[in-house]
Amino acid sequence: MNIGILGAGNIARVMSKTVNKTENVTLAAIASRSKEKADAFANEFDIPKVYGSYEELAADDTIDLIYIATPHSRHYEDSLLCLEAGRNVLCEKAFTANGTQARKLFELADKKGLFISEAIWTRFLPMRATLDSIIESGVIGKISSLTANLGYSLGNVERLIKPELAGGALLDLGVYTINFALMAFKGNVKEIKSTCVKNEYGVDSNNSIIMTFEDGKTAVLHSNALSNTDRRGMIYGDKGRIEFENINCCEGINVILNDRSVTRYERPPLITGFEYELNAAVRAVSEGKKECEEMPHSEILRVMDIMDGLRSEWGIRFPFE
Questions:
Q1: What pLDDT shows up at residue 155?
Q2: Is residue 75 within 8 Å of residue 96, measured between CB atoms?
């Protein structure tokens, strides 16, 4: 299957390395709005086709799947471009800037019979299935709550701090904490309370969220674009707890029971971690499916709607909305 990459930034480099080390896929084309940047990228990753515009890549009918690696603010228009040209799409997280954009993309993909999904790797990584099996085993007893945090010192990264780039901790980091909660607690959310601190440009630099589920479980979430945090997820039951090391890319899971016994689950070797979302997308396209079962459209919309509600509560609106 021929893979094209739209955008030639750092995240595109990770996917390029992944494709080049994955069987049954070929890194066939790279597109950047700068031909010089695209040429340099192609030389680095041995890519045969080089385009100095996104439109040229979208028009290439030899490309089976396009990975969108541009900033959040461009995800909608770049995905729309590819879908309108008849290309299947795997779009980096956050899928779009808001739920309205996501729904429009799903409607168009459905109309054209095309695949589209969000490349949020935590939904695809194998430790997600390991976590599911631990929870389902009942080893920590009746579960009542979880906590999760994700933070990096990113205060000078332009795409994180500018509203015109759909910046803020929520769409870049909080999306992981929300997804962690929804993966661990699969029920419906009854109530959400939150607060945030805004930067000088008016987007959130850090935020705290409390989600209450209909079955009584609670999730306390924190994301921070100003400081490094321990990035841990903790799930609490009446017989023990689950310690999920790094909710962004799990480095291992510890099950710690009340008797202080510890069971350790190691992470399997990774190319980059992106191979799981890539393989899931390739498999879905090969089978004629329009979404990934690991991250169906309904879950993408649920996360987008939650983030829309949070931004509305905080009074954060992007200029292009």
A1: 85
A2: yes
